Amino acid sequence: MDLLQELTETPSVPGREDRIRKVIQKHTKGLFDESHVDVMGSFIGVRKPRPAGKKTTRVMIAAHMDQIGFLVKHIDAKGFLRVNPVGGFDTRNLFARVVNVSTKSGDLPGVMNPAGKPIHIATDDEKKKVPEVSEFSVDLGLTAAQVNRKVRIGDMVTIATQFQRVGDNVVSQCLDNRIGCWAAIRAMQNLKKHDCEIHCVWTVQEEVGLRGAGPAAFDVEPDIAISCDTTLCCDTPGVPEDQHINTMGHGVALKVMDSSMITDIKLLEELEAVARRKKIKHQRSILPRGGQDGGAIQRSRYGVRVGVLACPVRYIHTITEMSALTDIHAYRNLLTAYLEQL
Ligand SMILES: [Zn+2]
Residue 168 C-alpha to ligand 1 middle, in angstroms? Predict the structure, then answer.
């Protein structure tokens, strides 16, 4: 889990993926026959069939490497920052957070809070209100002059938190989608022989609307694609049972559909058959609202057959996302086994 920890503790929001890309490049060194970074910043590694053989299926693996966060939008007269969201945080999770503001000259710690009065002097109505992201500010504890010297509009802001073990699970921010990034790296490391030609893509800007995956798919021109992402559990108190998307611990999720795409049914059944043959725990899943890179890949060029592997994650889009180690391992095992037999 050291690799997953390193991936989750490397800040990279949409449009600012340089740092996570460097970590992925470091851990995939020597695994590809060729690789390049595309215009938008996605990292594409190509593995020819091993051993070399006839022309075979060209498969695209896509894992988005961005995480939800913010960009600095405004510096006020006192040096407090306002931020613009890049990806969807629930603002109820943003009170009293230590954040990192990543500037040209390094990361600065700060404290994020909504505008308004402390609880001692707030009215009952004020206490109930859920603020918008635009009402939050970041206090760097510096003078306005110091802030203006160090911080620029567009600098990345992420929440500071650590990866940890909780029971037989891991808890961290951005398990969505560093688990997918991790599984793709591990599959490439573990795969020895395969007949397919693998184009492994760590994509950019998924969290702001699947922006990097489409151009990358146009470049790769795959026969089939597997989008590697995470998905919701909702198997926790307060959610009616018929609205549980997945159950944590019940294995890797195979998406039937979400609001960005409907999975190629034959591909879904092939993935299931491999899982059954290899005795890998899996569950089908439908997400009524929310999408992933597969939605953009499916509609590139003349259309692409797309399947989705998703790791079930509780408390998704918070900084305490939780995922079971058994599900994470099932996810990696199914991705590897599927590529092995393709
Ligand atoms: Zn995701």
Answer: 22
